[in-house]
């Protein structure tokens, strides 16, 4: 038990340190010791939440945040095959990307990572995504949530275009739309008829869960 | 007719003399496409069209300087990135493919002349001739770390700071040397005033310690080669390292988002005092809110407030806090210039 706790604490620390090499080794060790994959994921999540909070408080800068995300992904890659065999505990299906004409992708990638932390299955569309590509993907994977990121005042209107396209396709009520990005605000979200807005990755998860009525 | 030409007005301020009135300058690149009524690709790669767009912008609004160019992709392209153009009038060309794909590529960087940069240089010469040298046509020089993130990608560069710092330093050294050559080329074409985006000096992107290692030494080296020119530094981002820049960088002027960050123009003036600096302050208008979404009256109020805050003893240029968006309504640009003409005449008294 003590050994288990030590391993889990080390995993949390490796996320905070953004060490994507060592964490692979310790993740394997944890699995070999027989720790439940979901308990391992909890330890990783704890690290990601610490890092996100510190970033929002400006205690750390973007490098620490990105490296923590790398470490999280590295560990998850090892854990994922192990949990596939258990019944999937996914809480929702998220399609996310940055709207057309806008190549700022770092923000929505972090949102994606935090949504994974919360148990969402995610499809990352990348940046500069044409409206119809979002629609296709939402249909294809039967998404519950569509996340649209825009980092520029010139690309914000594209968020509205995607929402309008969903309406035109007659599938607007099948998917909740959340929007974000530095120039985006709650007022803008209301104005374009989005279902939610998140100022950062943590808020994004809270809003998404609320919309899907997950406790 | 005003007392001074734009060139006289701007150089007076940069030389710490009192001009006839507060000058107005924007970092206005892509807006040139709209002003020429053409799509972005044409504007970005055809020097005559770019000159036409920038000249229209100059004449239509009466601003005090121009900076030919189409944005970061054009500069990055010289180092080998591929540019992605959109078939519209307003959307900034983007870096479509980076060039440093693995750490070893850092030492292979070299410069090539591209249609984008040729267009900018051609436009520079045309505008200078058309305006009889009475308007500053500014050159561009980019902070090496900023450039590194363009040609490698932001996240990858960040990973290199941790995992491959030696290779990254090699790359930064090469970029710095190339930048110095580019500065020389522009000087030989007659450029005296440079605009320098220093956009990674922001505490949400890098910590002070990281910027001290990967940013400052290279910025200072580039500035060294600009010793006998004027440089307007632009510090971007939500948490600009304004204090460091004012304390340590030999800049003629500094521009930041004074309406969107915790540092107001007044704070900038306090920092000047603290560090015994004579740097000219550039800003006052919110490029993301007031200029785009406000009314001309809002722009006037904001401009008057800025003038009231810091213009009284000179050393001030009215501007936005970052690039002027291509969707900024014409009447708002006009309102900024009009306000400088009406309320920015020297001597400036307190406006009551
Ligand atoms: C890094 C960066 C770049 C990198 C992007 C690398 C990448 N792969 O993402 C590069 C160098 C490529 C780049 C290019 C350009 N950039 Co840029 N860039 C930035 C910068 C410095 C940081 C953005 C960032 O990554 N922040 C860190 C992340 C973690 O934060 P975030 O993106 O805000 O995301 C958080 C929240 O917003 C939220 N969120 C984000 N998305 C979503 C989505 C949902 C659904 C939800 C709920 C929440 C959410 O959660 C995230 C995590 O907390 C910003 C300035 C700034 N400080 O914001 C400028 C900035 C966004 N860029 C700007 C500009 C102008 C450009 C260029 C046009 C430059 C040019 N003149 O050529 C080009 C864009 C070309 C194009 N067509 O897209 C301007 C935009 C101004 C405007 N018009 O509104 C900014 C604001 C700089 C400025 N002060 O002017 N840029």
What can you tell me about this protein's structure?
The complex is a heterodimer of chains A (215) and B (352). By secondary structure, chain A is α/β, with parallel strands linked by helices. Chain A has helices at residues 2-17, 22-32, 37-56, 62-84, 106-117, 131-141, 156-168, 186-192, 201-211; strands spanning 92-98, 120-124, 145-149, 176-180, 196-197. Chain A contains nine helices and five strands. In chain A, strands 2-1-3-4-5 form a five-stranded parallel sheet, with helices on both faces. In chain A, strand 4, helix 8 and strand 5 (196-197) form a beta-alpha-beta unit. By secondary structure, chain B is α/β, with parallel strands linked by helices. Chain B has one domain (6-343): TIM Barrel (Alpha-Beta Barrel). Helices cover 48% and strands 10% of the residues of chain B. Chain B has a six-stranded parallel sheet with strand order 3-4-5-6-7-8, sandwiched between helices. In chain B, strands 1-2 form a two-stranded antiparallel ribbon. Chain A binds chain B through residues 18, 55, 58, 60-63, 66-67, 70, 101, 103, 106, 109, 128, 152-155, 182-183, and chain B through 84, 86, 88, 90-92, 94-95, 154-155, 158-159, 161-162, 203-207, 210, 238-239, 288, 292, 325-327.
Percent of residues in helices of chain B: 40-55%
CATH fold name of the largest domain in chain A: Rossmann fold
- Portion of residues in beta strands of chain B equals 5-15%
Output mean pLDDT of chain A: 91
Shape of chain A: globular
Specify the CATH class of the largest domain in chain A. Answer: Alpha Beta
Q: Kindly name the structural category of chain A.
A: alpha/beta
| DSSP E strands of chain B, number | 8
Number of domains of chain A: 2
- The name of the CATH architecture of the largest domain in chain A is 3-Layer(aba) Sandwich
CATH class of chain B: Alpha Beta
Number of strands of chain A: 5
Give the ordered list of helices and strands of chain A.
HHHHEHEHEHEHEH
Number of domains of chain B: 1
Estimate the helix proportion of chain A, in percent: 55-70%
Shape of chain B: globular
How far is the N terminus from the C terminus of chain A?
Answer: 29 Å
CATH H-level superfamily title of the largest domain in chain A: Cobalamin-binding domain
Protein name (chain B): Uroporphyrinogen decarboxylase (URO-D) domain-containing protein
InterPro entries (chain B): Methanogen_methyltrans, UROD/MetE-like_sf, Uroporphyrinogen_deCOase
Pfam families (chain B): URO-D
Domain Uroporphyrinogen decarboxylase (URO-D) (chain B): 6-343
């Amino acid at each position: 038990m003590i050994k288990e706790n030590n391993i889990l604490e080390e995993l949390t620390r490796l996320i905070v340190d953004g060490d994507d090499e060592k964490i692979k080794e310790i993740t394997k060790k944890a699995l070999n010791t027989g720790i439940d994959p979901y308990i391992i994921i909890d330890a990783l999540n704890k690290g990601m939440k610490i890092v996100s909070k510190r970033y929002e408080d400006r205690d750390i800068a973007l490098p620490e945040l990105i490296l923590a995300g790398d470490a999280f992904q590295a560990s998850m890659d090892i854990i994922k095959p192990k949990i596939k065999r258990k019944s999937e505990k996914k809480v929702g299906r998220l399609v996310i990307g940055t709207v057309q004409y806008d190549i700022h992708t770092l923000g929505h990638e972090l949102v994606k990572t935090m949504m994974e932390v919360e148990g969402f299955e995610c499809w990352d569309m990348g940046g500069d995504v044409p409206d119809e590509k979002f629609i296709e993907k939402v249909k294809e994977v039967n998404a519950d949530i569509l996340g649209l990121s825009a980092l520029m005042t010139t690309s914000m209107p594209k968020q509205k275009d995607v929402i309008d396209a969903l309406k035109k396709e007659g599938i607007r009520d099948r998917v909740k739309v959340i929007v974000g990005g530095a120039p985006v605000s709650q007022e803008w979200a209301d104005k374009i008829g989005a279902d939610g807005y998140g100022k950062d990755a943590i808020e994004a998860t809270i809003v998404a869960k609320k919309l899907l009525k997950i406790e | 007719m005003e007392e001074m030409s734009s060139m006289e007005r701007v150089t007076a301020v940069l030389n710490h003399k009192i001009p006839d009135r507060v000058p107005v300058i924007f970092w206005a690149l892509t807006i040139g496409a709209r002003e020429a009524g053409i799509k972005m690709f044409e504007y970005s790669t055809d020097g005559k069209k770019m000159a036409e767009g920038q000249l229209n912008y100059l004449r239509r609004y009466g601003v005090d300087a121009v900076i030919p160019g189409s944005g970061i992709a054009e500069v990055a392209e010289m180092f080998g990135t591929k540019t992605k153009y959109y078939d519209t009038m307003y959307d900034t060309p983007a870096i479509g493919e980076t060039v440093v794909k693995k750490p070893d590529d850092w030492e292979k960087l070299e410069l090539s002349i591209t249609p984008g940069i040729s267009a900018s240089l051609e436009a520079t010469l045309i505008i200078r001739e058309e305006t009889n040298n009475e308007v500053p046509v500014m050159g561009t020089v980019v902070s090496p770390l900023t450039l590194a993130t363009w040609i490698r990608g932001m996240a990858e560069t960040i990973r290199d700071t941790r995992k491959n710092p030696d290779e990254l330093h090699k790359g930064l050294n090469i970029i710095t040397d190339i930048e110095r050559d580019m500065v020389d080329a522009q000087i030989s074409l007659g450029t005296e005033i440079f605009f320098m985006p220093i956009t990674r000096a922001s505490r949400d992107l890098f910590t002070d310690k990281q910027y001290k290692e990967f940013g400052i030494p290279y910025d200072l080296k580039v500035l060294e080669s600009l010793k006998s020119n004027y440089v307007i530094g632009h510090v971007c981002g939500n948490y600009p390292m304004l204090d460091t820049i004012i304390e340590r960088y030999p800049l003629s002027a500094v521009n930041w988002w004074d309406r969107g960050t915790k540092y107001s123009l007044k704070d900038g003036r306090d920092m000047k005092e603290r560090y015994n600096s004579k740097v000219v302050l550039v800003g006052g208008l919110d490029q993301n809110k007031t200029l785009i979404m406000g009314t001309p009256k809002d722009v006037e109020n904001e401009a008057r407030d800025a003038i009231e805050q810091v213009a009284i003893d000179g050393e001030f240029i009215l501007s936005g806090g970052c690039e002027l968006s291509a969707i900024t309504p014409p009447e708002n640009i006009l309102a900024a210039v009009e306000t400088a003409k009406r309320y920015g005449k020297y001597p400036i008294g307190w406006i009551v």
